[in-house]
Amino acid sequence: MTGLSDDTADARIARLEEHVAHQAHTIEELSDQLAEQWRVVEQIRTKLDRLTERFLMLEEGSREAPAITRPPHY
User: Which pLDDT belongs to residue 37?
Assistant: First the structure.
């Protein structure tokens, strides 16, 4: 040893092990949150793609519509 008593070294190791366990738990939680956010992003991307496609279809349809003219009673 480096001059530390066995009790001090054991206590230090125990604190380090607790710290590592806490960090591992935090990493797991963050990983779960990231996975959930990624699922949400994918859902939003899918919806955006559908809305974009629908918008383009509506835009195409509006080009083919007859020109707006005044009604005959004007």
Answer: 98
Could you give the angle at the alpha carbon of 19 between the alpha carbons of 13 and 21, nearest 5°?
Answer: 105
DSSP conformation letters of 18-74: HHHHHHHHHHHHHHHHHHHHHHHHHHHHHHHHHHHHHHHHHHHHHHSSPPP---TT-
Given this model, what pLDDT does residue 2 score? 56
Give the angle subtended at the CA of 6 by the CAs of 5 and 10, to the nearest 5°: 120
Q: Compute CA distances 55 → 6, 12, 63, 64, 68, whole Å.
A: 72, 63, 13, 15, 21
Q: Which of 49, 30, 53 is nearest to 41 (CA)?
A: 49
Q: What is the pLDDT of residues 46-67, one digit of tens each?
A: 999 999 999 999 988 887 756 6
Count of residues in the chain: 74
